[in-house]
Specification:
By secondary structure, the chain is mainly α. It has one domain. Helices cover about 65% and strands about 0% of the residues. The chain has helices at about 5-25, 35-60, 65-75, 85-95, 100-105, 110-120. Helix 1 runs antiparallel to helix 2 (about 35-60) and helix 3 packs across helix 6 (about 110-120). The chain is globular. The two termini are about 20 Å apart. Mean pLDDT is about 85; it is low at about 20-30 and about 35-40.
């Protein structure tokens, strides 16, 4: 996986998990109905901020890194095997029609796919700490 740095993949995994957690939202309790809508707006704003951060980060990937990210998602999803890495990257480049950020962020299980792919390559985000790329 030389086309994309492990820290970048881990950053995308981390931020995707945060975004998906925000996207689900938090159920309002019955404590104070007056501020329930305010809480939802804060949650929505946080979700939008995370999504924007992810989009900008993925947009900043070069062509090879973007193709590698898609290839990792495909391998993690089980569409291809790790042994098909070069083929997966080449196909990701050939098939790139929509912006990469849109394609990968439409995958609800993106963080799981990426982690599974890393595991298939004997890699993980453990020990990297907070992958704060930017």
């Amino acid at each position: 996986m030389p086309e994309i740095d492990l820290a970048k993949v881990c950053f995308i995994i981390e931020k995707s998990r945060e975004y998906l957690g925000e996207d689900v939202g938090v159920e309002a309790d019955d404590s104070n109905p007056v501020d329930d809508d305010e809480h939802v707006m804060l949650t929505d704003a946080a979700g939008r901020s995370l999504r924007k951060e992810l989009i900008e980060f993925i947009k900043d990937l070069d062509v090879d890194e973007a193709a590698a990210l898609v290839a990792l998602a495909w391998i993690g999803r089980g569409d291809m095997e790790p042994e098909e890495w070069k083929i997966a990257v080449a196909q990701a480049k050939e098939r790139a029609e929509a912006p990469t950020w849109r394609y990968v962020l439409d995958m609800e299980l993106l963080p799981d796919y990426l982690e599974d792919a890393l595991s298939a390559f004997g890699r993980s985000c453990e020990g990297l700490g907070s992958a704060d790329e930017g």
